[in-house]
Amino acid sequence: MLVPGQWAVRFRAARLSLSIAALATPVLAQAGPTPAPAPAPAAAAPAVEAPPASVTTPHAPEEPLPAATVTLPELPPAHAEPPVHEAGGASEEWYDSFDLRVFADSYFSLNYNQPKPQTAGNGVIRAFDTSNGFAVAWAGLDIAHAPEPIGGTLSLRFGPSAKRYNSSCVGKCDADYGLENIKQAYASLRLGGESSPVTLDFGKFDTIYGAEVAESQDNINYTRGVLYWLGQPAFHTGLRANFELTENLRARALVVNGWNNTIDNNTGKTFGAQLTAHVPRNDPHEWISASLGYLGGPERDDTVAVQCPAGSVFDPSSANGCSPGTSGSSSGTIDRPGNNSSGWRHFIDLLVTSDPIDALHLVLNADYGVEKQRDSDFATTFTAHSWQGAMLGARYLVCEQFAVAGRAEIYHDEDGVTTGSVNGIPITGATIYTGTVTLDYLPAKYLLIRLDNRLDASNKQMFPKGVRELSGTLFTSTLGVVVTTN
User: Which long-range contacts (CB under 8 A, 24 or more apart) does 158-167 make?
Assistant: First the structure.
């Protein structure tokens, strides 16, 4: 199922791709991607969420392949809209209008730093492939109905990656509220009927930003990049509007809780917009797509829990919530005024994709973020902190069963807004470089095997090595195996 409203380019069946979806037998009529009627390469997502997303419905090949032929799958749009099915005949069953995908993703990762414990080595900058050795990433079920005019999407995930995906927020996250296994759950309405250019989505959905998505089989590499994991949102909860302005111009708007949280941690709201332009392909060697998006709103808690020291009691009228005394409660919660007006996070995302030739897919993604953070728990002043990064990727189809892809990234977070900490020590001033080479092999239908060789390097000692050491480099080889119904 393609996520409503995202216009992203996609490969034709003969073109280079990553989604196992193209291996499925012809399914219900393919939804037109948001950007243009002509198929083209994928973005992302959207980012990460949304990087990238839900059930993918590939278009059938222009000519049927011989029964013994296996072709590398088509790369689906990272953040695209759901398929619009043709009206069914009298014999069509009710379940024929639903799109379904079931998949399982496992891997073997060799971390040459040999961290102990085994799960300590990749966790700072890796999205989901955090364990050293054999591991299951997750299993997934996607079921969706296109808005005709009413539809919806439900995406369920089970496994370590599901918990990590739903724990990537500020404060308490979805995993803390019993939503660990729900990746997407939203209702869709096409205003004005099936031919309307406006679609609304309400609920939890993948982000519209970025070049990568959470599902490894829907990206050009098996591992997700540092830009996807650190610099971009993964999902949102709220209202999304999708507008088909012209044949080659699409727009989307968001009013959501913020980054990666279904239960909001403040009373403010986050607002987003994205515009996507498509240059039509007049022949197989001319095509380009560009998306520019913005997201802004408060992300930090607008209250603070106070634990008063000995000899003082909780006093909400006090500047720090405590006053001298021995009678009364020693803890409580006070307001943080100005958080929802002054403490905003602003995010800008640029995505460009192109297919200069049928066998080659190119992608460029760049982000800039800045957030005003309160100088201390009780201060009324805010200081701006920024981060930025870029990713350049390419994938080349060598033959029907084999492809090679590469990704290079640079990411900088001067004040440690996104890089977190190692062994309790905040990581500030970090510049991270990553380089990844991925080999794709499709031995049979429904089975994708990928080998990622990846080098991460930083100007900070931030990668665990051995038991207690830290290193400035991290080299891993990851073998990913994905089996999927489409």
Answer: 160/128, 160/130, 160/131, 160/135, 160/136, 161/105, 161/127, 161/128, 161/137, 161/214, 162/138, 164/127, 164/128, 164/130, 165/128, 165/214, 165/234, 165/235, 166/260
Residue position matching structure tokens 């994991």: 229
Distance (Å, rounded) from C-alpha 438 to C-alpha 300? 37
pLDDT tens-place string over residues 337-362:
788 889 999 999 999 999 888 899 99
- Going by pLDDT thresholds of 50, 70 and 90, the confidence category of residue 83 is low
25 beta partners: none
Q: Which amino acid is at 313?
A: V
Q: How many CB atoms lie within 10 A of CB 288?
A: 18
pLDDT given at position 65: 37
What single-letter amino acid sits at 412? Answer: H
d(CA 467, CA 126): 19
The neighbouring-strand residues paired with 388 are 368, 412
Say if residues 84 and 247 touch (Cβ distance below 8 Å): no
Residue tagged 């050009």 (tokens): 220
Q: pTM for the whole thing?
A: 0.80
Please give the average per-residue pLDDT across 357-382, as a whole number.
91
Q: Considering the chain, what percentage of its residues have pLDDT values greater than 70?
A: 79
Q: What is the dihedral of CA 454, 414, 275, 5, to 10 degrees?
A: 60
Question: Closest by alpha carbon to 98, among 44, 140, 57?
Answer: 57
- The alpha carbon of residue 32 and the mean position of all alpha carbons in its chain are separated, in whole angstroms, by 21
DSSP string, 40-94: -PPP--------------PPPPSSPPPTT---PPPPPPSS-PPP-PPPP-TT--G
Of residues 311, 336, 306, the one with CA closest to residue 321: 306
Q: What is the mean pLDDT of the chain?
A: 83
Burial (CB count within 10 angstroms: exposed 0-12, middle 13-18, buried 19+), residue 67: exposed
Q: How many CA atoms within 13 Å lie on the side-chain side of 298?
A: 21
Instruction: Quote the CA–CA distance of 252 and 200 in Å, as a whole number.
Output: 10
Task: Choose among 76, 77, 348, 129: nearest CA to 232.
Answer: 348
Q: What's the Cα-to-Cα distance from 302 to each of 229, 261, 451, rounded to whole Å?
A: 25, 15, 44
**Segment 46-53 mean pLDDT:** 37
323: amino acid identity, one letter:
S
Residue 455 CA to residue 448 CA, distance in Å, equals 23
Cα torsion at 254, 258, 259, 264 (round to 10°)?
Answer: -140
Residue pair 271/299 in contact (Cβ under 8 Å)? The answer is no
